[in-house]
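The protein record quoted in full:

***
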Amino acid sequence: MKKRLEIKTEFVTYIEALTETAAPNDDYDEHVHHDELEIYSFVEGELYFSFEGDRIKVNDGDVIIISSGSLHRTVIRTPCRYFRKRLLIKNNFFASMPTGALELQNRLTQKGIIVFNREKLADSSLDGVLAEIENSIKKRTAYDDFCAMTALASFLIEAERAGGEREKRRTLFGHRAEDIVRYIDKNISSPLDYNSIASEFHISTKNLYKIFKSETGFTLSKYIRIRRIIKAKTLLNSGASPSQAAEKAGFSDYSVFYRCFTEELGIPPSKYAAKQKN
């Protein structure tokens, strides 16, 4: 059985979702929020959180802040009761605030992910601020929406200060996938395929697939494709033409780039580029 509550305001979507018996890897695919920052509260469940090359064990009460453009997914190993709360914050939330808010957005983007366990959240008093945001959004009045946005700005400022550098809490899988991720990110503009990557790490293509999937929760092909799209999106934001962005992001065929970009962002690269100029 599944239960879901969703409330949308001008800048934020608040979601509560309960799955009474979540099956291993059931319907929780890798995804990227291209134009949103996410605050993910794990209320109950037994799972890992996979963030690009990292796998993080999360416990009841943990909160994860995920920046826009970050590839992530939940990984459920055993059937469990899975209850989570999510705040999806549009990027234009920062643009609507004083100029300094854009610096906050940049700092959060640079960190990629900030993890708070239940104790750290309580020590910083951010658990109370998060509850205030949720309660205000649920009241559904213009004034309470304003209160929620004010509290949200305060939460993100304090979270960025308290979060320190990007946190990594690894399982016992080792560092093989991390090395592969670093190699891919460093060479994302070059042709990359299973054979060339396997040769670089002196393993078979079969082992490469198994290692990457088991240690990150992502398929290698999906990871490379998303990293290329994120790279192309960054280039388009900087004024590159769609064809330049495709080439520099490692797409050898523009039609493939066009299809992948449109499927992922819901808009063709040419229209996305024109939108950025406006």
